[in-house]
Amino acid sequence: SINAGGGDVDIFGRDIQLSGNPNGGGIIFITADSQSSDAAGNGGSIALGNPQAPAELILVRNSALLANANAGNGGQININAEEFLRDARSILQVSSTSGNEGLRQSA
Fold first, then answer.
1. pTM score, two decimals?
2. What DSSP line would sit under 6-32, residue for residue?
3. For a FRET experiment, which of 53, 67, 68, 90 has its CA 20 to 30 Å from that of 36?
4. What angle do CA 91, 96, 99 make, to 5 degrees?
5. Which residues make Cβ contacts (< 8 Å) with residue 54, sequence separation at least 6?
């Protein structure tokens, strides 16, 4: 979003796999982003797994999850799973130039 807060991305399921193929097409990007110069322009949040019914497994491979804000609070990445696996090539990034940022994992 350029003039407002970023949207939220929710991916719910029993088993969640984000698996890019760097040899055959690239990596998976999921972004929740706000470029607003207003402090109310909070970045969106990304939720993998439902907080009320956590996933059994979340696998993140060759993927990037980005939740960012320019002026407001940076988005959050919420991992709701009994087991969470990610490879060394995957990126989970939250940022804000002037607000709070957060990354949270729960089971």
1. 0.80
2. PPPEEE--SEEEEE-BTTTTB-EEEEE
3. 90
4. 140
5. 80, 81, 82, 106, 107
